[in-house]
Amino acid sequence: MNNNSIELIGTIGYIDMGMGAWALVTDSGEQYELMQPAPSNLLKEGLKISVLGTIRDDVMTIAAIGPVLAIQEFQVIKS
């Protein structure tokens, strides 16, 4: 893991705001917007995952639902 990467565990959800956005909500309630394009097999409502990613401070989105998370790798915990 490099210095800019973070590891998170949470659940994937679709936020129906504006044009819509996919998010990861951690077990502690933090919400991250998934940077697009995200892996298509990751975009499944209710999917519980462990993820390694990078927070992208250089990216803004229309939804603005939380920090933008660029996925590096992920593992499904529960589908």
Describe the structure.
- The protein has 79 residues and is mostly beta strands.
- It is 0% helix and 51% strand.
- It has a 5-stranded mixed β-barrel with strand order 1-2-3-5-4.
- A hairpin with a 4-residue loop joins strand 2 and strand 3.
- The mean pLDDT is 90.
Strand content bin: over 45%
The largest beta-sheet arranges its strands as 1-2-3-5-4
The count of helical stretches stands at 0
Helix content: under 10%
How many beta-strand segments? 5
Rg (C-alpha, Å): 12 Å
Low-confidence stretches: none
Secondary structure class reads: mainly beta
In whole angstroms, the N-to-C terminal distance is: 25 Å
The topology string of helices and strands comes to EEEEE
Outline type: globular
Provide mean pLDDT, rounded: 90
Q: Sheet bearing the most strands, described? A: 5 strands, mixed, barrel
Layout of strands and helices, then pairs:
Layout: E1 5-15, E2 21-26, E3 31-34, E4 48-55, E5 68-78
Brief write-up:
The chain is an all-beta fold. It has strands spanning 5-15, 21-26, 31-34, 48-55, 68-78.
Supply the key terms.
single chain; 79 residues; mainly beta; 0% helix; globular
